[in-house]
Amino acid sequence: MPTIPGMFTALDALPFADRLISLRHALHREPELGLDLPLSQAKVLGALAGLPLEITIGTGLTSVTAVLRGGRPGPAVLLRGDMDALPVQEESGVAYASTIPGVMHACGHDIHTSAVVGAAHLLAARRAELAGDVVFMFQPGEEGQRGAKVMIEEGVLDAAGSRVVAAYAIHVASTMLPLGVVATRPGTILAASDSVTVTVHGKGGHGSSPHLAVDPVPALCEMVTALQTMITRTADAFDPAVLTVGSIHAGSAFNVIPEMGTFQATVRTFSPGTHRKIQAAVKRVVQGIADAHGVRVEIDYQANYPVTVNDPAEAAFALATVRGLVGPQRAFQAPQPVAGAEDFSFVLEQVPGAYLMVGAVPPGTDPGAAPMNHAPQAVFDDRSVLEAATVLASLAAARLAKASSDAVPAAATNPAAAPDTAPDTASGAASNPASGAASGAVSGAASGAVSGAASGAVSGVASNPASGAASDTVSGAASGAAE
Ligand SMILES: [Zn+2]
Ligand SMILES: [Zn+2]
Fold first, then answer.
1. Does residue 144 belong to any structural domain of this protein?
2. Region Disordered: start and end of each range (predicted)?
3. Is 472 contained in some domain?
4. Residue 5 — very low, low, confident or very high, per pLDDT cuts 50/70/90?
5. What values do phi and psi take at 451, rounded to 5?
6. How many A from CA of 26 to the centre of ligand 1?
7. Residues 183 and 198 placed together within one structural domain of the fold
8. Is the pLDDT of residue 362 over 80?
9. For 107-126, how does the pLDDT look when each residue is reduced to its tens digit (9 = 90+)?
10. Number of independent structural domains in the chain
């Protein structure tokens, strides 16, 4: 693997190890929920104190945005760390367990926060070499409250004075992915997550005389089954959708026609096109059946989080960078997206970037049997803090170095290639080994998201015997890793 400028190793992180793990434990002991995380915010501000950062805090939420100015001119890149916990009673048995009843860092966001703090320390130590700026985005409210969206509205993507050119986030997994294994993929990596509440209003009456009433129950039942048929007739078999009715309620007695009935469903899709199509079809089918039955219907369709889509070039760059850092056997391309959801999707709708999954299963624990993210028993190994910090710092530094080398005219880096005869793509590939992979990924994506993904998966498995096993596991890992 050729050296990528700006790479950080575990050795670089060692001087910060005790501080970062202490921070992780402190965050874990005092977890907070939603958009208002004053204790976590104070801990982050304390951990960043003394670094040469421009710090602002959120107004609509307790976020922290920190900007590190590099010693050389260049664009800005962004690193995201989410800070919120879950309403879960901890049963992990760790020494630094939650002291707040019913609240737990069960999704590992305490590690993400500490890792972004670690990346700030690593990058600040080499500030003079950095060819541009780094924005550190500490966000509350990932677990369903759209904290990233609020931070975007408050200007985080332009915090350095110009729009960031790339954004990266990691997510740790307490199951399936062994400690130190990193996975990502071009295109869709996580699903869109929607929720639907349908309320059918009829006219109540005696069960013996339905002709004198308007029964909402048959309409409700038809809707539930028709939605499943609609899914199979609407979604491409290779760009699927999932609709699950998880709750249905009507009536109170066997011989009474109720006034109303209701059901709730979750919808998961993997491409913006299918997301739009399914959303429209749900409303059409439900309204059509209501009309057919002469009942009134209210449809509350909430598009919670959009599809999380990795930019193909950024995902290829991130994978190449991480392979250079941890070795090719410990970083692989995930063969398929997973059905969890993330509000980093809002960031990736605005700027190119990549979302990576990092294994945090403690050594000695069977990754296949370890409790998953969100489980009360989930344990994330402390060492994943250092791993994630070096991954994030390396991505930022290497991406700025790449932007800097891309900005140099081809003639300057390669005197043999006359600028008027050599195609841009050829000189780019010659000056940067990662760009070959990136351009391949771009063309795969351009020819169709699904076929690009499939070919990437096959070649990933073929070229790396370990990735077959690991790829099975990733879907399980990340399915619990997000909303
Ligand atoms: Zn989660
Ligand atoms: Zn999470």
1. yes
2. 413-443, 455-483
3. no
4. low
5. -70, -35
6. 19
7. no
8. yes
9. 999 999 999 999 999 999 99
10. 2
Q: Is 239 a catalytic residue?
A: no
Place of tokens 């080994």: 433
Domain boundary pick from 405, 432, 448: 405
**For helices 109-125 and 17-29, angle between their N-to-C axes, nearest 10 degrees:** 150
Q: Residue 371 has what pLDDT?
A: 97
Active-site annotation holds for 298:
no
Give the Cα separation of 147 and 37 in Å (integer). 11
Range of the domain at 265: 192-305
Q: Which of 30, 32, 82, 84 is catalytic?
A: 84
Residue labelled with tokens 């999932």: 242
In order of 25, 28, 47, 280, 321, the CA distances from 22 in angstroms are 5, 10, 10, 49, 28
On whether both 244 and 360 belong to a single domain, the answer is: no
- Write the single-letter amino acid at 206: H
pLDDT range class, residue 408, cuts 50, 70, 90: confident
Position 441 pLDDT exceeds 60 = no
Q: DSSP label at 463?
A: H
Encode pLDDT of 225-250 as tens digits. Answer: 999 999 999 999 999 999 999 999 99
Dist. CA 109 → ligand 2 center (Å): 6
pLDDT value at position 228? 98
Give the per-residue pLDDT at 436: 33
CB 177 within 8 A of CB 370: no
Same domain, 257 and 390: no
My answer on whether 97 and 116 are in the same domain is yes
> Domain ends where: 405, 431, 453?
405
What's residue 89's pLDDT? 98
In a domain, 439, yes or no: no
